[in-house]
Amino acid sequence: MFSGLVVAHLPFTRRRYPSSVASLLRRLAFAAFAATLLLGAGANAAAPQPVVDGNRIVDSLTAKRFVPHGVNFPGYEYACQQGFGDYGEEGTEPEEIVSTAAAIASWKINTVRLPLNQDCWLGDDGLPAGGLTVAGYRQSVENFVAALNEAGIVAIVDLHWSGPNGVVADGLRPMPDNRTAAFWHSVATRFKDNRSVIFDLFNEPHSRWNADDSKVFDLSWNCWASGGCQAPAEPDTALISGLRWYQAAGLRNLTTVVRNAGATQPILLSGIDYANDLRGWLAHAPDDDQLIAGFHNYLVQRCKTVRCWDDEIAPLAEKVPVLTAEIGQNDCGTPGHLNRFMNWADDHLIGYLAWAWWDLPVLGCSNFALVSDLDGTPLPPVGTALHSHLANLPDELPEPPKRTGPGLAIKTARWNGKVLELGIRVDSRASKAVTATVRLARDRLVRRPPRTGNRRITRTLRSVTGMSRASLKIPRGLKPTLVTASYPGDRLLVPKTVRRKPASVSKLTR
Fold first, then answer.
1. For 261-373, where are the alpha helices, taking DSSP H only?
2. How far is Cα 290 from Cα 275, in angstroms, rounded to an integer?
């Protein structure tokens, strides 16, 4: 969960269900009914078994494209640390697990992400708390994963809260640490034979600022990949960080740890800036053909607009699968951000998992709750929006149209000594502007030196019926030597850049 929304890491109040016999009988009856449904469904209830095939996720059971749609189910990252008396949130107790999974499946959800706690899994730093045991924590997680799978749902096992040796895993750290390899070796070994599991190696790699906006730690893509940098040990809820440091572990090494454990399932690697920045992902990702790029998308983050998704997410999705492992909205108003992204993602066959499936009677939608009870009653406005959207999704989304070249060409580049006339052709279906850049040099035929030191002119040109035109006044004493035109690409057209070099555009010079 993103730093600016740290309240969403945990509910401040947890509702206990009434202990009346009637309530208990109701829940047990529902669990038995759900179990009967699951058993009766037979092969139809089998969870997908995802594999990465190029830039697609495919269900190896059916050979069809698999687009994850679902939710995050928080609890296993904080309940075991805060001494709630059980391993996860409401709905994870033995008598509740089957009914919880059935309620989730009733939303046409095919994927659930489970945030975990590194110390509770390993038994480090006094965790799990409250008399709980490591064996009990691991078994509870495994039981919940099994229940999700039985309900036809893929489980994503996510390292959410961690801490280096000697530091309690009580929140989100900037990067993995010296105990994370042991965590993933153990988790991967435990789940290596379960083909309906995906591994999310680290929730949200990020830089760190103090409350006064001073930057304490700047996470680079090199450290993201290879580790070795020193990261502040305080959780991201701390107002001051940098009082204690640890050496970060890189995601390339953790990928190797998972593979050495014998696990071949897909691995989700989230980008930097709380998983919102994927611009360096492709250049720094490990050499592994079962990787998925993890993207998180909240209103308070930088890449929250259609333009950014078009410019940064869509091009990456043409190379590797992208999964929006977290998306949410907590303003309790019209869920425009969620709806806008779901529609965009459906067009690009990019999956999304909403934060979060939990019942918070006090905080409710202000802390991202999607349901008003564990039976899966949608909570307005975001819960109802997600429920309705998933209910109306076709079982198979249509493949997006194959993108073609934009037909970009510089047709006219004439300079009369004062003005450069440009005519740039682009496909009439282009939905974005063309950027034209003109490189300038000193005109030796003019005695006066130029008054400006700027040697570049850039203009954004909108096309009219496939043609973009501009008249650019060239500063006295300068001449154009090279014209570059670029189209950023869109849903129908691929990006392209063309140039007219001085040797081939003699009309540009006198």
1. 272-275, 281-284, 306-308, 314-317, 336-348
2. 19
Q: Give the length of the chain.
A: 510
Residues 352 and 436 grouped into a single domain:
no
The answer to whether 175 and 127 are in contact (CB under 8 A) is no
Is 411's pLDDT higher than 50?
yes
The answer to whether residue 510 scores a pLDDT higher than 70 is: no
What's 258's DSSP letter?
A: H
Helix (H) or strand (E) holding 71: strand 69-72
**Together in a domain, 171 and 270:** yes
End-to-end CA distance of the chain: 60
* Position 116 pLDDT exceeds 60: yes
DSSP strand pairing (419-425 vs 467-473): antiparallel
pLDDT at 46 > cutoff 80: yes
Residue 19, pLDDT above cutoff 60: no
Read off the tokens for 127: 């965790």
Phi, psi dihedrals of residue 298, rounded to the nearest 5°: -125, 160
Residue 155: what pLDDT?
Answer: 98
The secondary structure of 143-194, three-state, reads HHHHHHHHCCCEEEEEEEECCCCCCCCCCCCCCCCCCHHHHHHHHHHHHCCC
Parent domain of 441? 409-508
Query: What span, in angstroms and rounded, lies between the C-alpha atoms of 168 and 166?
Result: 7
Residue 416 shares a structural domain with residue 378: no
pLDDT at 43: 34
- Tell me how far apart the alpha carbons of residues 327 and 301 are, in angstroms, rounded to a whole number: 11
CATH number assigned to the domain comprising residue 451: 2.60.40
Whether residue 83 has pLDDT greater than 50: yes
pTM: 0.82
What is the arithmetic mean of pLDDT over 179-205? Answer: 98
Give the CATH number of the domain where residue 133 resides: 3.20.20.80
Q: How many domains does the chain have?
A: 2
Neighbouring residues of 205: CB distance < 8 A, sequence distance ≥ 6: 174, 175, 219, 224, 251, 270, 271, 272, 274, 275
Q: 258 and 338: one domain?
A: yes
